[in-house]
Amino acid sequence: MKTFLKEFKEFAMQGNVMDMAVGIIIGGAFTAIVNSLVNDILNPLLGLVVGKDFSRLTADIGDVHFAYGNFIMAVINFILIALVLFCIIRALNKLGSLRKAPEEEAAPATRICPYCKSEIPADATRCPHCTSELGAETA
């Protein structure tokens, strides 16, 4: 039992498990924010534009009550949530690309000898394979 608890502790305290837990918690909080934006701001604006509250649309066929307006609202919510997430992720990607400095290409560490075609260090003045002298023009 002691070994089991020790293994569990090692598993639970691994970096990737803790990162995942933090991600899930932040994801839950972020979900509440996005849902509130869609349900409390965007849906009422959509209702003003269209002039109708889709969630109240229903149909009765015999004894069966169809609340098809709720389905329409679920589809609209999905589209709006996807749009909001797209805009947020796009903005974050742009912010991330602004912070990164463009990477300079490193000078190659090796070059090819023009005489024997062997790979040699870039700063070599003589080829170790064919012993040819390499001037500045071959660099």
UniProtKB/TrEMBL annotation:
Keyword tRNA-binding assigned = no
Kindly list the residue ranges recorded as spanning the membrane: 20-38, 71-92
Provide the topology term for how it sits in the membrane: Multi-pass membrane protein
**Mind listing the UniProt keywords for this protein, alphabetically?**
Cell membrane, Ion channel, Ion transport, Membrane, Transmembrane, Transmembrane helix, Transport
Query: Which SUPFAM superfamilies does UniProt cross-reference here?
Result: Gated mechanosensitive channel (SSF81330)
Superkingdom, natural source = Bacteria
A GO cellular component annotation here is: plasma membrane
**Keyword ATP-binding, does the record have it?**
no
Instruction: Provide the primary localization.
Output: membrane
Where does the UniProt annotation locate this protein? Cell membrane; Membrane
The cross-references to InterPro entries, in alphabetical order and at most eight, read: MS_channel, MSC/AndL, MscL_channel
Gene Ontology MF, one = mechanosensitive monoatomic ion channel activity
Q: What does this protein do?
A: Channel that opens in response to stretch forces in the membrane lipid bilayer. May participate in the regulation of osmotic pressure changes within the cell.
| Self-association state and partner proteins as the record states | Homopentamer.
The record's family statement is: Belongs to the MscL family.
What name does this protein carry? Answer: Large-conductance mechanosensitive channel
Organism in which the protein naturally occurs: Hornefia porci
Kindly list the organism's lineage.
Answer: Bacteria, Bacillati, Bacillota, Clostridia, Peptostreptococcales
